UniProtKB/TrEMBL annotation:
Transmembrane keyword on record: yes
Protein source organism: Lentzea aerocolonigenes
The protein, known as: Uncharacterized protein
Transmembrane segments: 37-55, 67-90, 111-137, 157-180, 187-214, 226-246
Keyword set, alphabetical order: Membrane, Transmembrane, Transmembrane helix
Superkingdom of origin: Bacteria
């Protein structure tokens, strides 16, 4: 004899639709007043740093010189945006707020994919805003220096560099927040260690390019140090992503 349940029990026993999980993660991204304030101030911070890294340039005679500030602006200018991403991912495990989500749907991979969908939305928005603002600012500076604006002839390349650089910074934030499931610890690593890696890479690119998370973006921009550094960097960070997902599947949610 088949046992039937009333509609509320059936709904509770069924799997939540994926779109609903995505909506829940979106709400978590702006769930507190501090999150809203950070995200509201993030565009001001990003534009301010773009102005700093573009309008202060004195040599924009080549396409490489013109796109170089983009890579630094992406890594530093988007720190506030990705700080909310770290809080979303790491904070869930630190404060055990992941429990209700896993009770509704136990699949940790579906939970991670829902968060990944939200992160993809953040990535697209950040990439498009950067792609719209940066060329306009660098064109103004180039004209002021009586240099030809060269990026306008290669907008597809500029878009590719922008999207790859933004994706790699976001990937770095995600990996750190998964490996260090503590909001304070993750933010400390992201705000201190990653910028230090950037400075070290600028000083010794052949050495620190091997572990620098944005090395592939620098390579695509024509400012890399070689395929060895690019491949080693990609292998390292993809391996860290795989390891962090392995840890996620076995992490205690209680």
């Amino acid at each position: 004899m088949t046992q039937t349940y009333p509609p509320p029990v059936q709904r509770a026993a069924g799997r939540s639709p994926f779109w609903r999980l995505v909506v829940v993660e979106l709400r978590k991204l702006v769930g507190t007043r501090s999150d809203k304030l950070v995200l509201a101030f993030a565009p001001v911070f990003m534009v301010g740093l773009m102005l700093l890294f573009t309008l202060t340039q004195t040599n924009l005679a080549s396409a490489g010189k013109q796109i170089g500030p983009l890579l630094i602006a992406v890594q530093i200018g988007l720190l506030l945006v990705f700080a909310t991403v770290i809080k979303l991912v790491a904070g869930e495990w630190q404060y055990k707020s992941v429990q209700p989500t896993l009770l509704v749907q136990p699949s940790r991979m579906r939970y991670f994919l829902a968060q990944g969908t939200v992160l993809a939305m953040v990535w697209l928005i950040c990439s498009l805003v950067t792609f719209i603002l940066f060329p306009a600012l660098i064109k103004t500076t180039a004209n002021g220096l009586n240099h030809n604006y060269l990026l306008g002839m290669r907008l597809g390349w500029v878009l590719g560099v922008t999207m790859l650089a933004t994706a790699l910074v976001l990937l770095t934030a995600l990996i750190i927040s998964l490996l260090v499931p503590n909001t304070g610890g993750s933010l400390t690593v992201f705000f201190i260690v990653v910028p230090i890696l950037m400075v070290a890479r600028l000083a010794l690119p052949e050495v620190f390019g091997l572990i620098y998370p944005l090395e592939a973006a620098w390579h695509l921009a024509g400012l890399g140090t070689g395929w060895t550094q690019t491949i080693c960097s990609l292998v390292l960070w993809l391996a860290l992503l795989g390891f962090s997902l392995f840890r996620l599947q076995r992490r205690d949610a209680g």
